What does this fold into?
Amino acid sequence: MKHSIATVSLSGTLPEKLQAIAAAGFDGVEIFENDLLYFSGSPADIRQMCADLNLEIMLFQPFRDFEGGPRGRLDRQLDRARRKFELMAQLGTDRLLVCSNVSPATSRDNKLIAEDLHRLAECAAEHGMLVGYEALAWGAHIYSYRHAWQLVQAVNHPNLGIILDSFHTLSIEDDLSTLSQIPPEKIVFVQLADAPKMKMDVLEWSRHYRNFPGQGELDVAAFVKPLIANGYDGPLSLEVFNDKFRAAPGTGTTRDARTSLFYVEEQAGRQIQAEKQPRPADVFHPPLPPEYRGMEFIEFAVNDEHAESLGAVLEQFGFCRTGEHKTKNVHLYQQGDIRLILNAEPDSLADAFFAAHGTSVCATAYTVANAQQLYDRAVGYGCKIYEGKVGPNERHILAVRAPNGSLQYFVDSNIYDADFHLAPQSGETLLERIDHAAFGMTPDTVESWTLHFRAIFGFQIEADMTLADPYGLMKSRVLRSENRCVRHPLNVSSDQNTVLSRSVATYKGTGLQHIAFSCDDIFSTVQKLRANGARLLDIPDNYYDDLQARFGLEDEFTNRLREHHLLYDADGAGGEFLHVYSEPVEERFFFEVIQRINGYDQYGAANTPVRLMAQDLYWKRHHEKA
It folds into this structure.
């Protein structure tokens, strides 16, 4: 299917927007009227720019407050429409978006409104144009696509059709059943946008918080499915009003935009197939994500000095240095099913990452049932592939770039024997596996990462939470594989003085916030970690008095928690969660040790405020000493 985007969705001047749209591979563009008004050239110049970029101008928008207005203004409104049609001829497009009237003075007489739309359609016919009528969710009288469709049917004019917009439909929880009854030839255009679910005025919601399909919580695929199942093969276009997008570089935004259209096509196509209907041939259909089996390794970018200091921390947490790369300055640490790699190789991606961020995660690897299948899916979605230096007899591991430029490897077999001189793991296994790895985000990147994990990895949004920090708020969104083998909390804070914001600032961008390691007996594990010299976060004593009151814990158990500075949570169904945190490593990230009991499947979110307070106290003490 053809893909389009409205210029209002992006930042920059009109030429910059068009260049970014073309670079992302879009087929066409909606020209928003203000972009034309602020452009110093002529409509013909815009037409030529688009032709040079192989972009089709698919729609001109919007034409506002036309139908049902005062009778004395109708002729003037028609004159205004004629001027728009003449301008559109210069632009080289034949489709005009007419949105429903929002004026309080709008007539509620459907017959009168239909007569106005008929006159507009007649005017469009004289100029060889097509009018698409769109119901705004905040329209004074016409706010439902179903009402708009009734009017289009009543007018019954070949130059009038309907424009369908997912946000206007899904934001008011409109009935989708009528969508399948609209003949595809009467659909002038389809506009798509997602959004987080918010209880607020729908106009404010629309103007500031829309995002691309896959980044929000609206079921855009359910909106698209009946249209393409019924034979609609026209453009799918994005119209997204978002303050952050309008301030971000257009190139990154358009890449996400194109990915989102592939994503919604795929999801709609799979919904059609699930209903035993044939999937349209031109709908994007990549390989399904394979089964996930866990995180294969996490790789840190370091130099020699930081490799030594971070390696010492890992050894305090029970890790053994079990491998040395045969040709590169790369070290493998292992414990249980956990593998951490320290990469200090000069003139490598890790070296560049260390120069930009200091000690940081430059790669993550995922164990899957079929690595090639996931790689092909990522390439189909347009991910940037990575081809690193491969020495003689070394394994080539399939990899793509994450949104922050780090690498994501896909692994389905042993990758260490060929590349490393290996030594057996020694000592007692205290930590068993990686339970989850959390990323600290800048506010302008969380939507991009959300879409990346949902579209390419097929992850699900598990939870959205707002958590209290001593100096503001932190928002956390958890994305995970369907089988819960891989979990990634994405954490963001707009308040500059929160623990998270300070960590992100030190990291100089989006990166690892913490890794949670699971164990089978946390009391014994923590005792041994402390004996090894592991520096764990102190928890205020008052926390345990409140904890005992809230959960009715036995004195002996509460005292054990207090002694080991363990945090506790329960889910009300018999599940329990015990966890402890390390002190920050270079003020960038930290480790968490956890134990899940009786099927507990959350993250101890209720303990986040006390953890953040303890981390803030540590941070202040550390800086006072410095």
